[in-house]
Amino acid sequence: MKKKALLLSLSSVVLLSLAACGPADSSSDSSVATESVTSQDGGFEGQTLVVWEDIDKSVGIEEAIAEFESEYGVTVEVTEKAYGGQLEDLRLDGPAGTGPDVFTIPGDQVGTAVVEGLLKEMTVEEDILDVYTDVALESQMVDGKLYGLPKVVETTILYYNKELVSEAEVPTTVEGWYELSKTATKDGQYGLLALWDQIYYAQSVIGGYDGYIFAKDADGKYDTTDIGLNTDGAIEAAAYIQKWYEEGLFPSGMIGEQAINVLDSLFSEGKAAAVISGPWNLEPFSSAGIDYGILPLPELPNGNPMSAFVGVKSYNVSSYSKNSELAELFIEFITNEENSLRRYQTTKEVPAVKSLAEGDALADDPAAQAVAQQSLHSELTPNVPEMNEVWSPADAALQTIATGKATPKEALDQAAETIENQIEANHGGQ
After folding, report:
1. Which of 2, 254, 280, 391 is most exposed by smallest CB count within 10 Å?
2. Which first-to-last residue range defines the signal peptide (predicted)?
3. Structural contact between residues 368 and 375, judged by C-beta atoms closer than 8 angstroms
4. Residue 124 to residues 47, 303, 332, Cα–Cα distance (Å)
5. Among 3.40.50.1820, 3.40.190.10, 3.30.565.10, 3.60.70.12, what is the CATH number of 48-154+311-380?
6. All structural domains of the chain with their residue ranges
7. What is the C-alpha to C-alpha distance for residues 35 and 324, in angstroms, rounded to an integer?
């Protein structure tokens, strides 16, 4: 899977997606979206709505779909596809007339999809918009226009092995984990492991040192000409990251494409005291027999909390849909408070619904509570097309830092220059 600064008020705490996140599905299985036949009285009887849902997640909306079909006299056909690859499939299936009316994508793909003309703008009443947490809803906004409604949010958290570190001894700071790791790292065992050779994870450190991807103006719009990956703070953060690699606290093979497999395997085998990972590992780590605890990310050496990216999954209307009015009604229905809670209870993917975030519905869920705290110090993954130019250069820079092939300043200066050039070439500097 391709990994992909906003401080949240307590009233808009975002909760974590607690389910698996995987690579794009190459399946071309799809259904034909039928033409709208709205009756004169404004009904939708007889229409068929085609919905693309995430892999293994349609079970979470079965009851809601049945109710929607009964209420409107329509048929909803659901096809499961990995959500990370649905936009790519739509590029082909939409023009061919075999795409969906409703589909689900990561929030950081929304800007690109809008530029490509793949999403239909939505018109939603203010009282419905008030249902969702602010940061999740922001992921669906481009130039002040709404292009979807959020269904799930996620961020990274800390997993620790209770057999290797007791709850009373769990460090609350990164430096505490550093000291523990120096003692624990021997004979194939490790302390804290993190994928800091990738910007998706390294942002937890860089953001805590006031580094950033793109600056924001007073209106909250990204200024993609202001790249903050090589600020003094970002360089200081990268130097701290480099220390962990130089001192052998991370295994040498945990760099690059295979890094995530190494991290997952070591924790699943009981060979790492703790890892920084995402909600997709809740079930796999449990299935591996690991008795783990979950916490928000620890405090950095400068006294700031670790940052993180907030990822959002959304439901969106395809611009090729011939049933767009019905599609909008479906999205509003499927993401309302009642159906969002039912979906969570089945899939353990937590919705960005204010009442659920502030109420007791998720109070017994340790992961959700950890994310509620972590979200206070996290930022939305930029949803602008220019973000596509960030991932590879930033990862390359961090990997040269991890391997000691360049100083943090040299690597990050080069990354910022490359990103700037690619934005200019591919987006006209806009």
Report:
1. 2
2. 1-19
3. no
4. 22, 42, 8
5. 3.40.190.10
6. 48-154+311-380, 156-308+384-428
7. 10
Residues across the chain: 430
Give yes or no on whether 48-154+311-380 and 156-308+384-428 have one common fold.
Answer: yes
Domain made up of 156-308+384-428: CATH architecture:
3-Layer(aba) Sandwich (3.40)
Report residue 214: phi and psi, to 5°: -125, 145
CA distance 195 to 138: 27
Q: Determine whether 239 is exposed, middle or buried from the number of CB atoms within 10 Å of its CB (0-12, 13-18, 19+).
A: middle
pLDDT in single tens digits along all 430 residues of the chain? 434 333 333 333 334 333 334 333 334 344 444 443 444 345 899 999 999 999 999 999 999 999 999 999 999 999 999 998 999 999 999 999 999 999 999 999 999 999 999 999 999 999 999 999 888 999 999 989 999 999 998 899 999 999 999 999 999 999 999 999 999 999 999 999 999 999 999 999 999 999 999 999 887 789 999 999 999 999 999 999 999 999 999 999 999 999 999 999 999 999 999 999 998 898 899 999 999 999 999 999 999 999 999 989 999 999 999 999 999 999 999 999 999 999 988 888 878 898 887 778 888 888 888 887 888 788 899 999 999 999 999 999 999 999 999 999 999 999 999 999 999 999 984 5
C-alpha span between 395 and 75 (Å, rounded): 45
